[in-house]
Specification:
homodimer, 3-stranded mixed sheet, alpha+beta, DNA-binding, about 20% strand
DNA sequence: TTAAATGCAAACGCTTTGCAATTGA
DNA sequence: TCAATTGCAAAGCGTTTGCATTTAA
């Protein structure tokens, strides 16, 4: 279901600002920060505000329409939930981000459930480390 | 090797402030925040400052004497490296933290290295989710 | 003696909030 | 109509920084 409809169905208003935030999220290739969303919003709607972006993102998180990932950059990045679950390998040296399929993590998820009775929420994991090129040199 | 000696050997001074920061880290049962370290430091050394705590922690991170873990609390927590590597399951509902042995994560680490040529830094992973008691009720 | 380390106060960067004005349904 | 939403400005919070002063070695 589209984010637009999801908002409406829960009784929330679909304002121009919210539409543009949703559009920025969808157009983003990869993960996008609140600041970047705001830049796009502001370019098309100059009398808009970053607090609206944060409020919209908070709402969308609550409705499970976006997920939040912390790449340890001092700010958090957002991603539309419906684009699928995947994970990230973040190279601490060159900054490269390698996408990782959910299936790689599933064995761990299963172990945690069986051995620890813990239902892990592994929707967007960012694993830090070093990529091949960088640790070859280090 | 003790943190005190490690600092000395690298040519850094062992100030009273640094000793108290190290002591707070060692006495901490589990993970401790900069603010909590500062409270202990300040109680014994009233003319001390939180910026010293941050500077000491930064130095100790650089020397691999402490590790940093983000429990998504809006602040980061520290832990002496020599106390051993372990991971955490954080229940998003009741806040309970379950310690997890490193060995649980090793298969994933191996997979990432073999399949992705990625040397993952999994020294202190915090995995969010729900513990048995909470997801039984949810 | 002197470079390293500290205290202080101010700045920083991301995020949140109170409130009056606006607006979607 | 009128509660939901917004813009604005200011605050909040953890963390960092510039600089004069102090201090460990």
């Amino acid at each position: 279901m589209s984010c637009d409809r999801a908002l409406r169905e829960k009784g929330y208003r679909l304002t121009p600002q919210r539409m543009l935030v949703i559009e920025a999220l969808h157009n983003a290739n990869g993960h996008i920060s609140a600041e970047e969303i705001y830049e796009q919003l502001h370019a098309r709607y100059s009398y808009s505000n970053i607090s609206t972006v944060y409020r919209t993102l908070e709402l969308m998180k609550k409705l499970n329409l976006v997920t939040e990932t912390d790449f340890s950059e001092g700010r958090v990045r957002y991603h539309v939930a419906e684009k699928g679950r995947h994970h990230h390998l973040v190279c601490r040296t060159c900054g490269r981000i390698i996408d990782l399929d959910e299936s790689i993590i599933n064995p761990l998820k299963d172990t945690l459930l069986q051995d620890y009775d813990f239902e892990a929420d592994l929707r967007h994991l960012a694993i830090s480390g070093e990529c091949h090129d960088c640790y070859k040199e280090g």
